[in-house]
Amino acid sequence: xxxxxxxxxxxxxxxxxxxxxxxxxxxxxxxxxxxxxxxxxxxxxxxxxxxxxxxxxxxxxxxxxxxxxxxxxxxxxxxxxxxxxxxxxxxxxxxxxxxxxxxxxxxxxxxxxxxxxxxxxxxxxxxxxxxxxxxxxxxxxxxxxxxxxxxxxxxxxxxxxxxxxxxxxxxxxxxxxxxxxxxxxx
Length: 186
Known about the structure:
The chain is an alpha+beta fold. Helix content is 17%, strand content 53%.
């Protein structure tokens, strides 16, 4: 009698465990939709250091203490850097631009980024420094746009204004509502 009761309990537990194991499969699309509906990221990375290469040469280096990946968004997937970024863009052997901000969003479908809070762009070969509170960056066109107040420091001038556009290496720039000293060559 004890042996029969043992076998019944054993088989019952085995069937229950098998049912539990086979019922725990999740469709990846259902998981993504659940995370998206709850406004949760699909991934999180801490202390990231990423090298981007083109034809074997390093073209940029991205550092950030924290990144959330919202690739589960159907319409507009993005990556969030709530603790800021430090991005070094390298153009050939002697020119580079450093971009820093305390907060950043990068929309991965269209390669647009919004940088906020203490945004600074430094072109080392030209000795140009741009400072603003918000900057939009079109990574496909390699172009910056800001409608916020800015300070542009060049080797000879300090320019203040509201509204700034530039190539990402600060080489060709346009500004609006300027004030400050500006050296003009004749």
